[in-house]
Specification:
Elements: E1 4-6, H1 13-22, E2 26-28, H2 30-48, H3 73-84, E3 88-91, H4 94-108, H5 117-129, E4 132-133, E5 136-138, H6 147-157, E6 162-165, E7 168-171, H7 172-178, H8 190-195, H9 199-229, H10 239-245, H11 248-261, H12 281-284, H13 286-307, E8 316-318, E9 323-325, H14 333-362, H15 385-401, H16 423-453, H17 462-472, H18 484-497
Parallel strand pairs: 1-2
Antiparallel strand pairs: 3-5, 4-6, 6-7, 8-9
Helix pairs in contact: 1-4, 1-9, 3-6, 4-5, 4-9, 9-11, 9-13, 9-14, 9-16, 9-17, 11-13, 13-14, 14-15, 14-16, 15-16, 16-18
Length: about 500
Amino acid sequence: MTDLVLDGQALSLDDVSDVARNKLRVCLGANARVRMAQAQALVAAIAAGDRPVYGINTGFGSLSRVRIAPDQTRELQLNLVRSHAAAVGEPLPDDVVRAVLLIGAASLARGHSGARPEVVELMCACLNHGVTPVVPARGSLGASGDLAPLAHVALSLIGEGRARFDERILPGGEALRAAGLAPLQLGPKEGLALLNGTHVMTALGALAIQDATTLLEVAQAAAAMSLDAALGTPAPLDPRIHALRGQPGQIAVAARLRNLLAGSELPATHRENDPRVQDPYSLRCAPQVLGAVADGLGYVRGVIAHELGAVTDNPLVFADDGVVLSGGNFHGQPLALALDLLAVTLTHLAAISERRTYLLLTAAEPEMKLPAFLSGGSGLESGLMIAQYTAAALVNECTVLAHPASVANIPSSAGMEDYNSMGATAALKARQVLELARRVVAIELLVAAQALDYHRPLRSGAGVEAVHAGLRQTVPFLTHDRVLADDIAAIVAIIESGELVS
């Protein structure tokens, strides 16, 4: 792949995942270099002058009334980075930190932060040489940017803190030297430019929405497989039903389920003399529920796409007009709401999946022609019984995590920052829900594939059979009781890889 050139354009979600996970190289474009130099010149002039401008020659937050002398502006930035590096908890995963570096570099490259080109060049070099700051996950209020975790990113850039290089965690300066890089000497406003911004919550959200989109595809395949395995009716997938409602996600999911089930031999076996009038909601209303999930993911994707083209620093430098404007683009409210919605939508995806698992395992309707818990030796053997317990426990945890973070406010900075978004908390929760939901769907696939095998030699639709074949390459049919944790983990891995629905 050719290098990703940061020249002021909006990043795409694929750009983020390609750099964060596939190690695509990044460089600073020539036009961005010019814009950055122009903005930096204006900042340097302000720093050397007498007029107070927030963040350049003043203190920060509630200390913004304190004037800083011109010969102390560099020390101001260094103190800012050190004092704000107060995040705690487990480190963010490396792919998230790489996404943070990319999103931050792209924002600075748009030329409205007043940072020198050298700042972005070092961020790109860290990405290209595999220097990954160690960033504790918790400490951002999601309002004046992701201050605390971003300070840990900045620490590595100035040769402090800790960073991972060549599979080792080293002091920041040592990691840079090992990669042949020199630490930054911060100029006026550059510490603030590195700390202000929504880069952590955006990085978490960008990777999560990519993974959630893949999971929705898998969840639709699982729903289709469960429908056929339960000998349910495909009648509720009729396009005329969904056209009357007009919800785009619902229409798309119904079409996807029809496609997956096209050519199935199973409906014909129970078209006549089946006393069931309707299937349970978990089968019959799959298009309505998963369609709403699809629409929710679409909204989240749109919010994140806008943020990937944004400048979320403060103050903002407008070199062409010769002005620096203080505002609030660092406030994470748009992302906080979207990321809370992401957790809610994925909770519904997981919850309806668990209901189909329960349905198949209990075989409540004799017309399903399935043994209890899909065991060939019920009583002596428990089959897949406890897999549903695990799914139920995971859904319960999703339900707890789905409580929105963005509705709670805790003021900070002596009241100057009196309304915070909690967007980083929403992002971390959404990521947790995603991981739990992936496991719930994996359990449904384990169960649905087992149930489908009980109807052999009959075949399901070509799409369902392709997914079934992919599962059977990894997890064999359950002939006797065995450890299910390994089966679930194996299915989770192929869901995560994207191979199952590719």
